């Protein structure tokens, strides 16, 4: 049991400047494990099944978390619009804070989570940026109204989006609570458009963030490398690595994949009856096979270069769901990255985008 403390007696920023605090892990994965479908709106559960969300918070606190995040990662108007819930931004964010605050009691701080808008800003103009900023501003205002101890802008991959999110959060906080700017970097330690970790930290401080850091990314070592580069800006650091899944680099056969799944993704019960047969899979002659958990851990994506190009497979808890094939040559090597709600597939034939849950 972690030591009890009251965030009202000791502000979050004071605590983080004088000691190390343990933050919780992913909410989406835990809800998925408790039977919520990957296609559901997890944030709506704050209103419809608050006891389920509270149980996740309580389990994290029992495990030692001293900071818990509200179940509001995707509770902005753009992401909620997919579920027809864009008019309920304030309601769902307030409910998320209420559930987290009740679970935290005096044992943990509550961080108001703001994830990516889901809006691709690669060719953004001033109007696009203003639209996304307004979306973040509405969500941040609701989280502040609800009474969080800190605003956590997290898992952003695009620097322009990071800027409008941090600025909107800082404005909503109005100096009453701090803002954390946390990004998810690619395997080279850069944002989607190439901004490096140290520059991200410098810019975030310039935009008003009180804490900088990295989350998810390519596991603990990648996050460690990123935050070491961020440290010289002189702000407290957040390091919240995601679950790293190692690449299979040789002898990519059906039996190897089956053993890999059982060892690294035990919640995925099997490959599924509709997955390619042993003979068909081995005939792909994969040079390598890589993996990523997407949708806050709701789906596993496996992808690799084999006969015919880049093969991509989607798996849910019950096994294989769908696949896609992209024409590609071995040079340059194809790659897949997660940007917002989309998988961006880089292959010889060009850059293709599909939603994280597949085509």
Report what the structure shows.
With 359 residues, this protein is an alpha/beta fold. The chain has two domains: 12-241, TIM Barrel, CATH 3.20.20; 254-355, no CATH class. The protein contains twelve helices and 13 strands. The chain has helices at residues 12-18, 27-33, 45-48, 50-63, 77-80, 89-104, 126-146, 159-173, 197-207, 220-230, 254-264, 278-283, and strands at 67-69, 109-114, 150-156, 179-183, 211-216, 237-241, 290-294, 299-306, 309-316, 319-326, 335-339, 342-347, 350-355. Helix 7 runs parallel beside helix 8 and helix 8 packs parallel to helix 9 (197-207). The longest helix has 21 residues, at 126-146. The chain is globular. Mean pLDDT is 92; it is low at 1-8.
Task: Look at the structure and give the CATH class of the largest domain.
Answer: Alpha Beta
DSSP strand tally: 13
Query: What gyration radius follows from the Cα positions, in whole Å?
Result: 20 Å
Morphology call: globular
CATH superfamily of the largest domain: Homocysteine-binding-like domain
Note the beta-strand portion: 15-25%
Low-confidence segments, given as residue ranges, are 1-8
